[in-house]
Amino acid sequence: MHAAPLDEQQVKLDTLLRAGRWFLQSGIQAPGGGVARFYRADLGCNRAVSTEITGYTVNALMFLHSVTGDAVFFDRARGAARFLVQDAWDPAAENFPFELGPGAKSMLYFFDCGIIVRGLLAVWRETREEFLLARAVHCGRAMIRDFDTGSEIRPILTLPEKAPVDRDWRWSCNPGCYQLKSAMAWRDLAAVTGEREFSDAFNRQLERSLAGYADFLPGASNSERVMDRLHPFCYFLESLLPYLNDERCALALADGIARVSRYLREISPVFARADVYAQLLRVRLWARGTVPLDADAAKQEAEALARFQMRSDDPRIDGGFSFGTQRGEPIPHINPVSTAFAIQALHMWHAGALPPLNALI
Length: 361
Description:
With 361 residues, this protein is mainly alpha-helical. It contains 12 helices and 13 strands.
């Protein structure tokens, strides 16, 4: 793969710029605006365009624009948002399918829909383009109609039947506290539209998540599967950040930070995910007014996270962040979400300033 991690000093100097260049020049975003799930460096190809990853990338590009002031990031974010509204929307399903292109799976994911809505709203806040808000509202209503049974959220539906898929050991196939991050789209839509339908739906998921989160970890006896579960568990922690005045949420967040930190340190020599380091660091920093910051742990996480950024003569790799490591060796997946989470976390750490919570990628 001819790639090597950056050292700490280099990260401080150019993490944002190199990662931003990767988003712009690597080809991870297609000319039409859609973004591939990740780049397979070992095979030299991108995976299929993913609606979820496109939504995440919209938020990442908007964050890069806010930090650098470079209009090219905003233009790319706007192009990705337009792609989602105009090209990715499935009129028959009245929602965003999982993937696009040859071999794409005919499925709807609740989680993906919420990430897409939040991406559309991020651009709408700047442009006030009505078609973006209209599509976000349409999707938000479909999330309630198709996924929320009142007692739980069905994670994945088949198309065109919209039948729930069979559940297995994978966290993504099961309901859980992690879905609260996607449900934040309802919270955001309620704030914009004033519609109680959205706030009620979010509150239902908040109560379900608080009631069941303690059982999510470890969730498996295999340590690598536990590491994989840390990632969605951090989604739950991120979603609590606006509610730290609620004692239940503050206690759950403090408990969750301690649990993720412990498992991450135990398992990382065998298998480590960059996104978990980034998510944990972001949560620590945003929550530090309520949960005392463990500065030594945060410093270790920032240093470990920086090592996932890759250096290469290949623009498809350089500046992006590897998905993770196995026994210390980089996994050859250059990942837009890992990159997005990492640059936000590292910027927060090095700049010592916190962006507004609605900038959470």
